[in-house]
Amino acid sequence: GLYGAYKAYREACWILEGTSQMHTQEGLELMHNLAAIKRACGDVRAALEAYGEEREIRVSLGLLETPEGATLLVNIGVAHGECGDHAGALDALAEARRLRESSRAMQTAAGARLLAQYGAAKHACLDFTGALVTFGEARRIHSALGTSRSVDSANLLASIAKTRGALGDHTSALSTYLEARRILEAAGALESRDCAVVMMSIGTVRRVQGDVEGAFQAYTESLELHERSKTLETSTGGSLLMRIGVLRHTHDDPEGALEAYMRARQIFACRNELVSNDGARLLRNIALAHNAVGDVESALEAYEAARNARERLGTLETPCGALLLLNLGGAQCATGDVEGALATYEEARRIREQTATMETTEGAQLLAGIGLALQESGDQRAALRSFTEAQRIRRQLQALDTADGADLLQAMGVARTACGDTEGGLMAFEQVRGIRARLGTLETTDGAHLLEDIAGAQDGGRGDAEGALEAYAQAKRIRERTGALETPGGAQLLMNLGVAKRAQGDFPGALDEFEEALRIRRLTETLESPDGASLLMQLGIARAAAKDVNGALRAYNEACAIRTRVGAAEEEDGALILSMLGSALKASGDLAGALERFAEARRIREETGTLMTRDGAQLLSSIGLVHLSRGEPEAALFDLREAHSAQDQAGGIETAEGA
């Protein structure tokens, strides 16, 4: 097999090296064969190293300036290209062309193949116009030789089509690919790897043109050809599977996309090609699919692998690298690592500024990501500044009236509301409503999210409880119609709807919403979270209002237990739940238990600096009343005076609570 041949050639090399006979005709032939074996085994980097040694031998023997030397340089150029070193490929192929021209061996089939490779290298270096010129030279050679209907000519046409597609001329690209396929069919090469590659490219052009069915048909034919020709376990086979994954993901099948991506990953890994530009793109696509199915941890792992690959390749400091870092930052933020996300985003911003790609839609996306991370960290004003900068870029590019633009404006609305500018927030939300109406996405989960944000601003900022209730109810109807109610987001909506109903005096209705939200949290296994604990607290309040003291106690106790398990007990919301539990214990007659919970809540508020607030004043007042019920008037008076002081500092004396 190949491995046995490799061992034999390697041992022969050692013998010649030991006798200083490597730089001989025999050594040249041996190194040439060793490089070919390494290439056949899929180890392109090792083959490139062997090609370099073969070149040294040819130079020492004066045999580089020959057609065979030109062929070696072509092999070196192709290997450089496969390793992602397109500049190195271009240099080697340019030298090969010079050698063929100097030896008058350009007007041959080998010369045409060289020009095809040279044009492909120019394409990889983004010199599309230069690539087409070089391809045109190769085509003229085929015409002169009478080989315009050959397999080589078909492959040349495929390269021309690829470059035309890169220039945006997809119609011309498709017709050229189809011509290449007709030539392969006439040449009896329909069941070949070359035809499989052409069909893959046809599928990609059709996907870009929006012909999903045509793209799937072409990709399926390419897959079948790869399987029949036993070439699926190759770089092009892996690339095909990756493209199939992209098509599936684009059309709402992330599970199917992930299946195709993982098959491609196995091929890339077996060929040691994960550390390549295509490998990095594949890893990023895998991460996107993991994220789409809710597996954020696996997404984060794949993003990190893609980042490592780009760092090793030296392609992280590029616009593609910046886009990868944007995705990585989003995954870090989703897993709670806000600090890490901000650091990743800043690295991406530095790269975009260095590559002059900040004033682009991708730059605006990055600024939006930075803003969202700043929101998570609690710095709403800094978030608003980042959102505003992103808005400026999108407005300049006329890219604000889009789905991404709507998301940005919605985040701006949330930030403005949080900064106290409720009217500014609602104005932003109305802009979003207009964009979503034009895009036809109001009656979707995105539209429901918008209504929830509007409701929050109306209730918290304007004090418009009735308007908030109407918006929450409309959001619920949308989630019911779209099948998105039985989700963590749906449970959060129902909790907010319940709070709004309670504010309007509809206590039975509020209790129903809280109970339904609890069912969904248990169904989606998201009760073990701070949001789940908050829901249980609201449920406890509703049960207490319905005189179900025991039910309230169960809800409060479960909420406290969850906060302890998830490490969120020592927070202000943890103190609030303990206060509610204390009040329920007092109502049940357990004054000692109530006092114990109140004392624990007071300790947390003192440690978090939230005792001298309205909620802190309410807690101190509750402690005083328990002392009064226990016949401890002096302790009660002390606590009530402290409650008065807290209420005064919080600016709430002239309120019902202060009275």
TrEMBL record:
Source organism of this protein record: Alexandrium monilatum
Pfam families reported for this sequence: TPR_10 (PF13374), TPR_12 (PF13424)
Per-repeat ranges for TPR: 196-229, 491-524
UniProt xrefs under InterPro entries: TPR-like_helical_dom_sf (IPR011990), TPR_rpt (IPR019734)
Name of the featured protein: MalT-like TPR region domain-containing protein
SUPFAM superfamilies for the chain: TPR-like (SSF48452)
tRNA-binding listed as a keyword: no
Record's keyword terms, sorted: TPR repeat
SMART domains: TPR
